[in-house]
Each structure stands twice: as structure tokens, then as C-alpha cells.
Specification:
The chain is built from five helices and four strands; from the N terminus they run E-E-H-H-H-E-H-H-E. By secondary structure, the protein is mainly α.
């Protein structure tokens, strides 16, 4: 007998892409409440969706590169898992707290703890920083940095939403840890690919060399 699943499987059928129901700038939360498309809750989970799309770019880059850098396979598995976790997180944000189902997909402290363990483990492989790092050096590094900045924006929006409506604490915890993880992963990816990090040098500016 199969063990019961922690979360409900998706129960939806998408046969028609457009419905015209949002033509007047309104949309529905999971529980049916109609809100404006610029509502803070919509802006928040829309930004989480943007983050997931950027992670999809990073995942594609990892798939292209891992044959020449086998260590990247570990990161590919982590990024894939995180994409699913972000959809679980979006499920929470897309539902009014009072209408959350006990088995609705969600973020938990176990997800946060896993990120923390991965941050600690991968950071041990990296040299100590002597300056801030700039995004770049290779495409994957830059994609992970873009994901990091979108994650920070999602976190800011979640915090702003929490000032108006209830937001599960785990959501804020997770986004905060994920942004830290993305920073570590960008550095770790560069090391796996043998690409030097780009360190901030304030004296490379035009102003520093104007005299």
C-alpha cells in the first residue's frame, strides 16, 4: 500500500490558455477571491515566478556544461529541487491564509534547513573573499547572480505584503536563505568551471582614473 503523500497533487486541467476574465485588470487567488493584478500578493508571487524562470535558465546552462565539469551535476539537482519548492511557495502566496488546505503544497522549515546545509557544505569548498564579487566571468555565474537579485526583490515584496496580510514565516525564511544560497552557488559554479571570480576593484572606475 502506497504511503500517503505529504501534499496534494495538482488537480487542474488546462485546456484553454486565455479566458478573458482578466481583461479588466482583475485576477483570482486560488480560493477564488478577485483582486487587482497590481495587488501586493499578485506582485509577490509573480516575482517568485520570475525567479523560477531565471533558475530555469541556470538549469539549462548547467545541463549544457556538466559534461565538461561533472561536479556541476550536484548543483543541477539542487536547482531542480528548488524550482519545485518555489512553486510550493507560490501556492502559499496565491491563497488567502484562512483558506489554506492542510495538505496544500507549501514551504516548510525542512526546506529552509536543507538550504542551510547546502550553503555550509558548498561554502567550505570556496576561498575566503577579500573583496565583493561582481556578477560574471561566465554565463552560469551571471545567471545565478540575476536569480539572487530577483530573489532579494521577492523577499522585499513578501515582507511588504506581511505588513498588510498574513504571510507564513517560512516563506520569508526560505527566500532569505535562498538568496544567500544563490550567492554561494554562483561562486561554487565558477570554481567547478575553473573560471576566476570577478572581484570589485573601485579603482577601475573612470572617476578613479580621471586625473
Amino acid at each position: 500500500m502506497a504511503e500517503p503523500k505529504t501534499f496534494n497533487e495538482p488537480r487542474l486541467r488546462i485546456s484553454k490558455i486565455y479566458t478573458k476574465s482578466g481583461d479588466k485588470g482583475m485576477t483570482s487567488l486560488v480560493n477564488g477571491r478577485r483582486v487587482a493584478k497590481n495587488h501586493a500578493r499578485i506582485d509577490t508571487y509573480g516575482t517568485v515566478d520570475e525567479l523560477n524562470a531565471n533558475l530555469g535558465l541556470a538549469a539549462a546552462s548547467i545541463a549544457e556544461l556538466e559534461a565538461g565539469a561533472p561536479g556541476l551535476e550536484r548543483l543541477g539537482g539542487i536547482v531542480s529541487r528548488v524550482q519545485h519548492e518555489l512553486f510550493n511557495l507560490g501556492s502559499l502566496l496565491a491563497t488567502d491564509p484562512a483558506h489554506l488546505h492542510p495538505k496544500q503544497p507549501r514551504i516548510t522549515e525542512a526546506d529552509v534547513s536543507m538550504l542551510e546545509a547546502e550553503i555550509d557544505s558548498m561554502n567550505e569548498d570556496l576561498p575566503e573573499l577579500t573583496s565583493f564579487v561582481l556578477p560574471g566571468g561566465c554565463r552560469l555565474n551571471a545567471e545565478l547572480h540575476v536569480s539572487r537579485t530577483v530573489c532579494r526583490r521577492a523577499e522585499r515584496l513578501c515582507y511588504a505584503l506581511s505588513q498588510e496580510e498574513e504571510v507564513p514565516a517560512e516563506v520569508l525564511h526560505y527566500l532569505n536563505r535562498l538568496s544567500d544560497a544563490l550567492f554561494v552557488w554562483s561562486r561554487w559554479a565558477s570554481k567547478m568551471l575553473g573560471v576566476p571570480e570577478v572581484l570589485w576593484n573601485p579603482n577601475r572606475s573612470a572617476g578613479a582614473n580621471a586625473g
